[in-house]
Amino acid sequence: MIIVGVKDAKIRKDIFYLKHPFQILNADLIATKKHIIHAINQAKSKKPITNSFWMEILVRASAQRQISNAIKIIGVNPEKEKSNVCIVCEDKETLNKLINMIGGVVDDSVLELTQSKMENIIRAYNIKGLSYDYNNKDELIKRICEKISIIEVM
């Protein structure tokens, strides 16, 4: 599985109609590759919530059971001029096709946590009892993974 960050991508609506297997997520709300790896592992090992493995990654990564809520939280917005995104796909051919469509620069640093990104993640995922202090980044990743793990019981 390939997980890549892309900085300053321009998302066009036609990307959602590609027949290639992939998922593209808002990197500004991803708490490192660990977040996505955990979502992928949960998508592979738990009872599916959706009919598609790639949509399953979206709902798991968002810690939501409803696809519409998942899209609101961690989906990409084709209306934005430029976005930082996370691409999840199976092979280089798909990755190259996606990058050619969206432009931007492959840059995994958009998946790493920053102070302002932590604040946005804490709000978006409704994480209680955790300060925005950058020293809490490991705890934030842990809490996101916990939220992903418990969506079956919600």
From TrEMBL:
SUPFAM superfamilies: PF0523-like. It comes from the Archaea. NCBIfam families: PRK14886.1-1 (NF011465). Belongs to the CGI121/TPRKB family. This is Uncharacterized protein. It comes from Methanothermococcus okinawensis (strain DSM 14208 / JCM 11175 / IH1).
